[in-house]
Amino acid sequence: MKETDAHSKSPAGDLIRKNLKKHFNMRSLRGAVLQERNTLTLFILMAVAVGMYGCNNTEGAPAGAGMAMPPPSLPVLSINNTPSTTYQEFTASLEGTQNVDIHPQVEGYLDKIYVEEGAYVTKGQPLFAINSRPFDEQLNNAQANLLAAKANMANAQINVSKLEPLVKNNVVSDVQLKTAQASYDAAKASVAQAEAVVNNARINLGYALLKAPVSGYIGRIPFKTGSLVGKSETTPLTVISDIKEIYAYFSMSESDFLHFTNQSAGKTINDKIHGLPPVELQLADKSIYAAKGRIELMNGQFDKTMGTISFRAIFPNAEGLLRTGSTGRVRIPTVSSALLPVPQTATFELQDKVYVYAVGDSNKVASKPLHIVGKTSSYYLVDKGVRAGDKIVFAGMDRLQDGAVISPQLLSADSVLKVMPL
Fold it and tell me: Considering the domain 2-83+339-419 in this protein, what is its CATH number?
């Protein structure tokens, strides 16, 4: 037991524990249970390396004091090409497929509000009622005028009927008949005009009850019962959002757009858009929305003031989790097998650059800067700096320097991938 304790307190063990502690304090994995299981697995891998280091020290340590310490035993990992997915992310604003402003068509006092903010309504459902008494009286007046017009038309018809036989028998001149006929035509036109006024009064009365033009969710209702509303009011009574599907609007800079056109397959822009894989939506809490969406279309030209071009993606929203006005990030995936995944735990930063310690001939380490083109939750995706087959120090880099000699303990790439999925 004493020998085992001594091994666990070796410099390499301290270095590995320090690196792991720093890493797992800074990063969170996908859940508490998964974090404990992965941490335990990774500690087991590290413990194997530390144990081997202890054995090496015990077997190779000279009997006399003051002799040089053997090279530290550190875990190393061989870097290989692995198919990986990178994402281009763009800030997006979310809107329902239909957002309908509800404006009154007539002026009056708001008598009733039938719905609550945030409620779901169906097409044709009553929303608001404006005091209808003035419109009832307008309709009554219009109907009375229509009756008077019809009476005048009937009287004009009698005069025409009375003069027709007299003109036929040459008792009176036909001028009188033509005058009577003209009076009848004028009365008939007055009836048509009165009917139009009645119809218009009915329409205005109908406008006093506002109904939902589409199904969707009610937005904010800024007016209260008793408020005076009308056509001149610019603020809508409310907004109805149909969010069975949701639009995510985002913009690309000119450089991002050129990268998109160069990397996407297809001859035309429409071909390139339709050939894109399904996209993800990252929500405000950094979680990924369960359903994937697709990019539908793009704007026809760049915004001169912003230097960007707009795109629209559509996502299913059967559960109503997404709402108009929310924000998120559209993530467009790109799958590549030419990039090298490097664990972020195996890197260190110096002057805004990311480095790894590569193990070379005679087990000497040398720092190499990485050219990072993407990253996942646990890996940097690299195209320059290291090559496939290179071995890098996985942990314990804090006390290393260029030219240091180590005793490499090779880790299984599969074991690391199980603990830290790509």
Answer: 2.40.420.20
